[in-house]
Amino acid sequence: MNVGPDHERWADAAGVYVLGALPTDECAAYEDHLAACPTCRAETEELRVAAQALPLSAPAMRPPPALKSRIMAEVEREAELLASASGAPRRAPEPKRRRFNFSLRGVIPAVGLACAALVAGAFGGAALFGSSSPQTIPFESTISNTSAELEMTDDGATIVANNLPLPPEGKVYMVWIQKPGQAPEPTSALFTPRRDGSATASVTGDMDAVETVLVNTEPIGGSTTPTSQPVLTASVS
């Protein structure tokens, strides 16, 4: 993906901007950069969706004992891929010198949101790596080269997708559930794929009566009724 002018200066500013912690005198300059930089625009939209979804997160719960080892294994796998792609030996990353001067007022909400993200992530990880054996159901996809699976456990379901393109600007992917003879019901699962096209989304709650799980694109924040055709469809029963 192309980058805009002065990208190196703003490469690590997306999260600070979404949290509202970017100093006022930097905001206008960063927004000008966003208009010309597709890479920072995509990262900002991805982080904004995560921040908006936090109030909808389920209450914190204790993750299973195996969760930590599974997460660390995934971190190691990602590190090996990055090292292999760059051709450089693996080593601990050097801390990046920040170019922004933050007041304590800006740091406090950022830390609070980061803590909330960790709680939400632990809950989502528990659904994905829970002790119950998941039932795996393939999605039918309308997007070429995109594949996805629905992993169902007693606690809910998790969508795992690959080669999923970024949604249109101003939109996100949204998960819907449908029961026999009823219209699709919205869930709180809103997501965008990572830069490599991979994505995960958790749907909590009882899935026993669900017949179909759907994924489509909706405006940021979601909708109460579908406004576009599904791109992923899984028949649960």
Task: Break the fold down into its secondary structure elements and pairings.
Blueprint: H1 7-10, H2 14-18, H3 24-36, H4 38-53, H5 67-86, H6 104-129, E1 135-138, E2 140-141, E3 147-153, E4 156-162, E5 171-178, E6 185-191, E7 199-204, E8 212-219, E9 232-235
Antiparallel strand pairs: 1-3, 2-9, 3-4, 4-7, 5-6, 5-8, 8-9
Helix pairs in contact: 3-4
Question: What is this structure, in a nutshell?
Answer:
This is Regulator of SigK. The chain is of the alpha+beta class. It has three domains: 1-56, no CATH class; 59-94 and 101-131, no CATH class; 135-235, Immunoglobulin-like, CATH 2.60.40.
What does it look like?
The protein is of the alpha+beta class and 237 residues long. The chain has three domains: 1-56, no CATH class; 59-94 and 101-131, no CATH class; 135-235, Immunoglobulin-like (Sandwich), CATH 2.60.40. It is 35% helix and 22% strand. A hairpin with a 2-residue loop joins strand 3 (147-153) and strand 4 (156-162). It starts with 6 loop residues before the first helix and ends with a strand. 26% of the residues are buried.
What is the H-and-E element order? HHHHHHEEEEEEEEE
Q: Quaternary state, please?
A: single chain
Portion of residues in beta strands equals 15-25%
> How many individual helices?
6
Number of domains: 3
Poorly predicted segments: 92-120, 122-131
Mean pLDDT: 76
What characterizes the major β-sheet? 5 strands, antiparallel
Alpha-carbon Rg, integer: 19 Å
Distance between the termini: 40 Å
CATH hierarchy class name of the largest domain = Mainly Beta
